[in-house]
């Protein structure tokens, strides 16, 4: 009577609390059944309903920004990075604000504008959050990825809910 998970967001240390909680509840709704037949019908329908309800909350701004914090370990000093990944951008912003962040630190941040041309303006470090709003589209993508990780074995993908299929590449040449 205990659910054991491996390889999904509920187990990852860097996943936001909202995504972990969503996946845990999604699994419980899916498997709160008495038979396999019920899982494939009632459980699956309950899971789909829960996905749409949580999407509504996310898109209506009802999720606390603190539940959307992502944590990543800074594995080397900032100046060693060749690309400005989100956690690196957060570390840079922390250092600029006077909070020392370096190799070995757990960097926490929230996406506020993931499509911004300046990587330093795509995120806000969790320690510097005041009244920023989160990037609803970015967290929607993460949310749908999380739902697909659980329900893909049942044939689910985001198109079931009317969202566009995630772009996939067939080769490095396409990228």
Structure description:
- This protein is mostly helical.
- Helix content is 38%, strand content 7%.
- The protein contains four helices and three strands, in the order H-H-E-H-E-E-H.
- It has helices spanning 17-31, 36-59, 86-96, 136-151, and strands at residues 70-73, 106-111, 123-125.
- A three-stranded antiparallel beta sheet has the order 1-2-3, with helices on one face.
- Helix 1 runs antiparallel to helix 2 (36-59), helix 1 runs parallel beside helix 4 (136-151) and helix 2 (36-59) packs antiparallel against helix 4 (136-151).
- The protein is elongated and about 55 Å long.
- The model has no long low-confidence stretch (mean pLDDT 89).
Major pleated sheet: 3 strands, antiparallel
| Helicity range | 25-40%
Number of strands: 3
Flag low-confidence runs. none
Rounded to the nearest angstrom, the distance between the terminal CA atoms is 44 Å
**What order do the helices and strands follow?**
HHEHEEH
In short:
With about 180 residues, this protein is mainly α. The chain has four helices and three strands.
Features:
3-stranded antiparallel sheet, single chain, mainly alpha, 175 residues, 38% helix
How is this fold's topology laid out?
Blueprint: H1 17-31, H2 36-59, E1 70-73, H3 86-96, E2 106-111, E3 123-125, H4 136-151
Antiparallel strand pairs: 1-2, 2-3
């Amino acid at each position: 009577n205990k659910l054991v998970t491996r390889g999904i967001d509920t187990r990852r240390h860097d996943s936001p609390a909202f995504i972990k909680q969503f996946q845990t509840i999604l699994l419980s709704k899916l498997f709160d059944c008495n038979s396999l037949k019920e899982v494939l019908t009632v459980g699956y329908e309950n899971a789909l309903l829960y996905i749409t309800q949580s999407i509504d909350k996310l898109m209506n701004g009802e999720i606390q920004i603190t539940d959307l914090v992502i944590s990543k370990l800074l594995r080397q000093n900032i100046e060693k990075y060749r690309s400005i990944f989100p956690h690196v951008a957060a570390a840079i912003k922390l250092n600029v604000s006077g909070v020392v962040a370096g190799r070995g630190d757990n960097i926490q941040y929230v996406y506020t504008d993931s499509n911004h041309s300046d990587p330093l303006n795509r995120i806000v470090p969790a320690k510097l959050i005041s009244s920023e709003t989160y990037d609803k589209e970015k967290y929607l993508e993460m949310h749908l990825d999380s739902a697909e990780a659980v329900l893909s074995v049942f044939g689910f993908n985001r198109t079931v809910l009317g969202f566009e299929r995630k772009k996939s590449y067939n080769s490095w040449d396409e990228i």
